[in-house]
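Continuing the batch. This is chain 6 of the set; chains 1 through 5 are on the previous pages. Same settings as before, nothing changed between runs. Recording input and output for traceability.
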Amino acid sequence: MRRAVVLLSGGLDSATVAAVAKDEGYAVSALSVRYGQRHAAELDAARAVAEQLGIEDHRIVDIGLGSLGGSALTDAALDVPKNAIGAAGIPITYVPARNTVFLALALGHAEVIGAQDIFFGANALDYSGYPDCRPAFREAFEALANVATKAVDDPSIRYRVLAPLMDLTKAEIIRLGTRLGVDYGQTHSCYDPSGALACGACDSCLLRKKGFEEAGVPDPTRYA
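Output for chain 6:
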């Protein structure tokens, strides 16, 4: 059985990607990251998602992106924008180089366990405009993976960075995950939760709401 590393944040997209990898017959190793995010509740969601999908190999890596600052997701002094979806420019919720760091961790893990395929939930349609969610980023990191590892000296190794949701709308993602049996009630998307309740107004919440509405699927999220 082929092995794959799946970046599992605990959100809607990453849960769907994990289900896709499972459906394609991979033995999935899920990797989550505690990086100082204000919405650390997503890590509990990641555990629940891994259990629901039958992923036995799930690990959480701790790194300190919060010490770098520059994002409302890691700096409590910065407010998470509300009802601002579609605003010009890259939003303050962008975490500098986050996906680059996460994929580097996934690549290291893949190299250790002998996996050559890495999945992550990047999406370039219904998203907040983060630069590390675009096709060009995926392609560039895949090229990097094959010149920065033992693959350089071993022609039998060829790393692939797979983003199967890249060209899907949020509604299409939800329909896909629903067909694959994802329990979206276990997932967490909100950037600024209040306890177990989602704020309902950050970019991530608004995109999630829109996706469920357009998919015609009941939204299991508990909003404040």
